[in-house]
């Protein structure tokens, strides 16, 4: 066939079935083209001269086929020139340990040791059989490539593996286009700037949770499930205001939403395969239990919003000036969303509550999880409690002194003391006070660096992509980042002994808990870096500060269980018992 269609000078033609079909297809297309053109009378044939038609037509057809042959020959020539280039390097599959059928077991036994072996054996990009998938793992600078290339998508990976998009979208009516990034703009424009204002409420909620959850413990008290205390701190007031969040049904909704979500997603079971999680979410999106939770929020919010409207009307009638009006309006996220209803394109209150539910799902679980692990690190490294407590006292002493001086200065000038300088708040655990606690910040960054699971940040290739080393990730290819390479084996970024937990290693380095980069990825990086990390930082700092101020000792009831919580592991929600001993 190739001999007939192509001259001897033609380059060799690949002989797969597809390549043979191409010329036949093009010849057929040519014939059809001629026939259709004839019917439409739109070509150069002389229809009026019937006797010459068949000859002219045949000549034209042969001409057309000749042209097509030439095109095909040219394209195959190009093909062959291209195929002379070296084939892209293959991505090596890491060898399996004798007796293992996948890499899961070896990875779970010691994440860093396993990934160091992978990298030594196969280089920075390799394939693993893990989580019941074949996944390409990228290390070192290739992690940056994965994060900064928009064609590798985290949300698409989660959607492909678990169908999260469909499930979450069943909770909202507007802003379903992920690129609209409504959550991001709410967090960045309203939540983060308002964080200092929410602090007093956060402290109050957490203190109450501690009193309820631990109670008096001068002699030491066992708390079987410490995560339960921390989850009571859920940020309900920040999102929906104290009036709504104080409703016990709403508080329960916040907590239960996370339980529902974790259950549907199978977050509590490391052995659930992704297809089961995917199926669960697909099935549940029709009868999404969280939809009822959204309705509960909406029902609880309705009377509160009506009351807020009445108050606004009253202020306007009273002719309140702008500062008073602004001061007396609520500053929670619910109010901000109502104020910008049209701008965000919300449909109704239920839609707003759906968006709040999404915020809760992204924020509450992550913050509770991080706070709980920080408390476990306090228990595993008891000297940290002493240092952090000392720092807290020094910072609060300094702030108290400064405020006393400011009051004295006002009095000496015959000025009234402003309400902000009320001595009752001199030793508040304010956002400003937390910012001064550099040991605390270093401790938290170090905990996040050491605890974050070594294989994380699923990404999926939206189309075929070539990495800078020439390796090709095919369309729909799944990828994971090897954080061992940048967190545990990277003394250039983290200083000596990077594999060890050293809580004060970042003091004086300007590397704060929220400062992301390719050497520190608990919050991701690039366009989709976590926008909630500033809130997470403030909340986790509040939890740790309260813990060290209230308790002299926090200990594992069974020290053998410490290892299970000092490093996160996909699907593992272990919460071993702790013994709390109060300061007084
Ligand atoms: C310690 C707590 C937290 C951790 C470890 C964490 C971690 C992450 C990570 C790894 C990502 C994905 C980044 C990427 O794809 O590159 C992310 C995204 C996100 N996080 Fe967080 N997060 C935390 C707390 C929060 C909080 C408190 C909020 C909300 C107030 C929040 C809201 C979000 C949102 C909306 C995204 C999606 C960003 C986007 O796709 O553009 N997170 N977070």
Automatic annotation (TrEMBL):
In its UniProt record, a GO molecular function of this protein is: heme binding
Show the stretches that span the lipid bilayer. 17-36
Q: Does the keyword Cytoplasm apply?
A: no
Gene3D superfamilies, sorted: Cytochrome P450
Keywords, A to Z, come to: Heme, Iron, Membrane, Metal-binding, Monooxygenase, Oxidoreductase, Transmembrane, Transmembrane helix
Q: Note down the stretches annotated as region Disordered.
A: 83-103
Q: Which cofactor does it need?
A: heme
Q: Is DNA damage included in the keywords of this UniProt record? A: no
- Residues recorded as binding heme, renumbered to this chain, are 530
* Family per record: Belongs to the cytochrome P450 family.
Protein name as annotated: Cytochrome P450
